[in-house]
TrEMBL record:
GO terms for cellular component: basement membrane; plasma membrane
Biological source species: Hucho hucho (huchen)
CDD domains linked: EGF_CA, nidG2, TY
Protein name: Nidogen 1
Subcellular locations according to the entry: Secreted, Extracellular space, Extracellular matrix, Basement membrane
Residue ranges with Pro residues bias: 355-366
All residue ranges annotated as the NIDO domain in the record: 99-264
Amino acid sequence: MDLHQRGWLGWSTLFVIALSVNSLSKRDMFDYGEQAGDQLLEQGTDRTQEVLLNQSMFFFDGEYTTVYINTNGFLAVEEPKVESEYLGKMPASFGMIAALLGDLDNSDGVGKVYYRQDSRPSVLLRTTDHISQAFPQDDEIKPTHALIITWENVAAHGAPGRGDGLDRKRNTFQLVVASMASASYAILLYPREGLQYISTPVAGQSEPVHAGFSQGLLQAWFSWSSSQGPYYRITTDDEASVRQLSEETNSGRRGVWVYEIGTFPFFSSITPGQVTNLSPAEGVAVGQTPEPGLPPTVHPVHYQPRYPVPSYPEPLQPSYPETVQTSYPETVQTSYPETVQTTYPETVQTSYPEPVQPAQPQPPRYQPQTPQVVLDVDDDLDVDVFAYNSETCASNRQKCSSFADCKDYTNGYCCHCRPGFYGNGKDCVAEGKPQRMNGKVKGRVFVGNSPSPLEFSNNDLHSYVVANDGRAYVAISTIPAGLGPSLQPLSSLGGVIGWAFALEQPGYENGFSVIGGVFSRQAEVTFLPGNERLTIKQEFKGIDEHDHLVVSTELEGRVPEVPSDSTVQIDPYKEIYQYGSNLITSSSSRDYTVSLPDGSVQTKTYQWRQTITYQSCPNDEAVRAVQPTQQLSVDQIFVMYDSGNQLIRYAMSNKIGSIHSGPPEQNPCFTGRHGCDTNAACRPGEGIQFTCECSTGFTGDGRQCYDIDECRETPEICDSHAICNNQPGTFRCECVDGFQFASDGETCVEVDRPIDHCQSGTNNCDIPERALCSYTGASAYVCSCLSGFVGDGYTCQDIDECEQGRCHRDAVCYNSQGSFTCQCRPGFHGDGLQCAPGSPELEKKQCERDRESIQVSSNTGSFSFFHPRPAVSQYVPTCDQHGAYEPTQCHGSIGQCWCVDGNGQEIPNTRTGAGQRPLCIDQGVIPPPIGPTTRPDVSPVAPGTHLLFAQSGKIEHIPLDGYSMNKGEAKALLYLPDRVAIAVAYDCVEKMVYWTDITGPSISKASLEGGDIISLVTTDLESPEGLAIDYLARLMFWTDSMKDRIEVAKLDGSQRRVLFDTDLVNPRPIVADPSYGRLYWADWNRDGPKIEMSNMDGTDRTVLVKDDLGLPNGLTYDPESQQLCWADAGTRKVQCMDPNGRNRRTIVEGIQYPFAIVSHGRNLYYTDWRREAVVAVDRTTDRETDEFLPQKRSRVYGIATTPTQCPQAYNYCSNNGGCSHLCLPRRGSFTCRCPDAVDGSCVERNL
C-alpha cells in the first residue's frame, strides 16, 4: 500500500463500517441492569410502577415528586389511564414523556424494563456532557439528580411470531431525566440496532410508535370545560419520522435527543437541543434564509431538525377574545420552515391571566440595609483623569474615538459614540463584540501573620469578556507561590471588567457605557474575623491601538493565609453601585469557602467597598439620565491558582440591573442564553423573541459572524503612505518607514530620521559573504572585508592562504572562498597543519580516497619544492572530520556550490551561483533534536509572504508580490534527497517550516532564517500525510493514513496523544483554527469520503460534508473570511463553505488532479499532480489567474504560506492554561489532557 491507494482487502469491511459511522450503539447508553443497581418493572403488557422521586422534577410549568413508569414506553406525571385512551393518540390526555409510545410487551421474559434514581458524580457528569453539548451556549448546567429508565428488548404486543419469542422484533431505548434546582432535562437515546420495528397493532390497525411530550388536558379559566394543553411531538404519524430517531440528533450525537422540559419559576416552552450538525442530505431541515439586507429574526426554538416538530392543537372551545390571545409576529414565523412554527391553543395562551399575575407594585424607595458602610474618599485621589476644555471640534476631533462624532456646545465640545457603538465618546467599542484588557500588576502584600511582605512588579494581567452574555475571564501571571493561594478569594481583583461590560438588563447600563475606559478605581477589602486589610488601586487608561483596555494595578496590605493546595469557592453575590457626578461608589459582603488539603472546610467573609472616579464631559447640554443606583449580580465564579506556572485565574458571569427583586427577565438577550455569535449583539424583541446582529466590522446572520476585511474591500481607506492592517472587527493604518501621522491622525507626512543602511540593505558594501557592514549612527556606516578576504570593504578579494605556506610541508593545501583546508599527504597523518609519517589506524573513507587520487594525479611527472596542490581549474572534494563527504561541495575557482549525496554524487538542480551556498541535508545521520543554530553560510529567506511547497527531495519557496507569484525569485529552500516530503506547515511565531516525510517516516522542522534540521517525531509513524500548527497553544496535529488516526503533540514532538483512531480510513489534510480551537480534516475514503470537524481537545466531532465528494485531498481554512475550502481530485472542483457546513459554493471546476491547497487573502493556491504546478485561484472572480512550473518537473505535494505576522487571537492556553501536560483548546475554553505515555504526574480536567 502506498500513498495513493490502500489494499482492496479491507474495502468490503470498510463499506459495512461506513454505513454505521457515528451511530449510537447499545454500549453507548447509560449503564443499566441489575449490576447498575436497577430495579425491574413487573412483566406484562400494560404495567405501571409508581416512583417517589428523591428530588423534584419540573415538567412544563409543574413540579412533581411522584412519577409513573409504564411498559408502553412512557413516563407519566399522573396515574395513567387505560390503554385505549392513549395508544395511537398523541398528544395524550395526561402528562406524559413518551420515549417510544406503543403497545409494548415484556411478558415473555426476554424483554425487560429497568429503572433507578442515581446521583453518582460519574452519572451526573455524563448527563451534563449530553446537555452541554446540546445547549453549547448554556454554562449553568449542574444536574443533581437523574432518573434512568431503560426498555430493553421489548416486543410489540400482538405481533405475529412462532410462539417461542425468538423470532420477534425487539426495541431497546432509554430515557434519562436530569434535574437541578430550577430545571429538568430529558435525554432520549435510540441505538441504531435497538429500533427493529416502528409500529404496533392498535385496535386492529398498525399505528406508528410516538415520541414527544404532552402536558395533558387543562381546565379552562372561568369555565368547566377542559382543553388539550401544550405538547411537543418529536415524531409525527409518518413512520419515516420514527426511523430518523436513530439517524438524526439535536445534541451533536446521532441517536441522542436532548430537551429542556421544565423550568422554575417561569416556563415558556419545551426547548430542543441546538446542535444538529448534519448535512441537508441526511434529512435535517434547514432554516429559511431571511430576505437580503434584513437581520434574521430568532425564535426561541432555534436550530430544530425536521424531527422533532413542536405543535399545538386547535382550541376546543375558544373562550377568550382575540385581544387576549398571544401570538408571534409574522417576522418570526417566516424566519423558519413551517414545521418549526409554534402555535398555542387560545385556552392555553391565557393560562396566566391578570388575576394570577397581578400588576407589579411600585418598588419602595431603596434604603441601605445593615451593616451600613460609610465611604470616605481619599483627598489625594486623582479625579481629573482627562479633561475637556472650551475648544471646538475643529482642533480636537482627534481626541474622540474613531467610532465617535464630535459635537460643539456653548462651552466647548463633547464626543458621542456612533450608533452600533457604546462608551463615553473618548472610548467607543462595538456593541456585542468581545473585549480584552491587558496591563501590569505590582504589589507589596503581607500574608497571614508574616512580618515580611511579598513584593512583585511588572506582572502581566490579561482579561477577556464575552460582552453579549457577561462572562469574564482574568489571568495574572508570575504570582509567587507564597501569595497565589491567598489571592484566590479576590475575584474582583480583575472583575472590574465584569462590571464594565456586564450583561445589561432593560433600562440599565454597564460601566463602560456610562464612563468609558478611562477612570481610577480604589477598593478597600476587610477580611473577617481577622480584620486584615488590603487596598487595591487601579488606573484604567483607555483603549490602545490593539483595541484592548489598558490597566495598571497596585496591591498594598495584608491578606489571610490560604494554605498551599487549597481550593476556594466563592458564593454568588450582589453589589450595589451608586452613581454621582464623576463618582461611583459600591459596597458588598462576600462569602467564600476554603477546602483544605486535609479535607476540612472553612467558611469566611470579607467586606468590599470601592470608589470609581472619572471625568464626564461637562459641556453636554443634554446629559443622558443614568440610573442612580444599580445592582451587579455575579455568579458562576471560578478561581484557581496554578503553582506550577505561578498563574492565578478568575472567571465569573456578570449582570447589571435593578436593586429591586422581581420576576427575572425571560428574554434570552437578558439571560445570556441566546446562542448569538460572540461577535454579535443580541437585540430583544417582544416577549421572548430576539434577533442576533453582527457587531460593527463583522458580517453574517448573527449566529455566525465573519470579520470584514476593510483593507481588502476598501484599498484606499488609508493614506497613500500608510499600510492597512486588518484586525477583528476593525483595521489600523500605519505610516510606512519615513512617515508619521499628522495632527489629524489620518494623513502620513514625511519625517527626517536616520536610516540604518546596514539593516535595510541599502549600503554599497561587497556582498555579505565577503564583507561586513557596520552601522555607526545617524545614516553612516563602515564597510570591512571578512576574515579570509582583502580589500576596502566595497570590493573584497579572496586571500589564497595556500600561497602563504599555512599548511605543513607534508600536506596538500586547498584554497576556498574566504578559507582553506590542509590535508596530509599519503604516508602521513595529522590535521594538515601538523603531519607525521605513518598512516592512521582507521581505514580511509571514499571522500578521502577521491581527494588523494586528485592530489596524486596533479603531481604526476613533476617535482616541486613547494607544497603540492591541485591545478587551479580542478575540483577537489571537501571531507568532514570523519572522512565523509561534506553535504555542501564547492568549486573554488568558479565559485559554485552544490549538494551531494552520501556517495559524493551531485544532487540535480542544487547548484548555485557565485557567492551562494545551498542548504543541504547531511545524508549520514539524522541531526539530533537541538538548535536551530544559525548557519552563517546560508542566506535567509527574504522578508515578506512566501508560498512553500514540497517536491520529492526538496521544499521550494515562491515569494508573493501582493497576490502574484514572483516566479523569477522562486528557488529551493531545503534539499531532502531520497526523501518524500508530503505535508508542509508554518509557525508564524518562530518562523519555522514543518514537514512530514513518508520515507522515514518522520516529522521535522527547520528555520526560514537558516539553521539545522531538527527531527521531532521519528517513531510509531507509518504514513504521516497531513500537518497543522496551532501557533497560539504551541501544538501540532497530524494525520497518519496507514495507522488511520489523528494525533497531537507539543511543537517539539513531546507529549503525543491520539485524538481519534476510529471512523478513519484515509485521513490526509488537516488544518487548524487556533482562534476558535477547532480542527478540520478530510478523509478521502473512496467508499465514503467526508470532511469532519472537532475541537482541538477531541470533543464535538462532527461530519460537515459527506455528499458530492470524491477525493478531497486538499483542505485549508481562511481565518479572515472564515471560509473552509477544499480541492477534490474526484469531483475536480475547488469549493468553499462556512465552518458550520453552510453556504457551500464552487470556486472553480474542471481542474485536473489537485493534491493540497492553501489560502492567502482573496486567493487560493493549490498543487496539481498532473500539471506538476502550483496554481493560483481568485475567489472573488472564481477563476484561475496564474500557475508556476518548477524547474524540476515532478509531482508537487503540500503547500503553505509564511505570513509576515500572526493573526491576533485570544490564547486560552497562555502559560499552558495551568495544565500539567497538554493544554488543548476548544471553543471559548480549554481542556487539560495527558499524553498517551503518562509519567504519573499528569492531571486531566475541563475548564
